[in-house]
Amino acid sequence: MIASAIVVLLALLAVAVTLAIRARNMQYWLWGYLTRPKPPKVDGPIHVMFCFVDHFEPNWGRVDMPTQRHRVDRWCKEYRALASRHRDADGVMPQHCFFYPEEEYVPEHLDKLQALCAEGYGEIEIHLHHDNDTPENFVATLDRFNRLLHERHDALPRDPVTGQLRFAFIHGNWCLDNSRADGRWCGINNELVLLRELGCYADFTLPSAPSETQTAMSNAIYYATDDPCCPKSHDKGVPMRVGGKPSGDLLIIQGVLGLNWKNRRFGIIPRIENSDIRRGYPPTRDRVDQWVRTGIHVEGRPEWMFIKVHTHGTQERDMDTLLGDPVDDMHTYLESRYNDGQRYVLHYVTAREMYNIAKAAEAGHVGDPGQYRDFELGRPGRSRVQAQKHAMHS
Question: Rounded to whole angstroms, how far apart are CA atoms 152 and 44?
Answer without folding.
Answer: 45
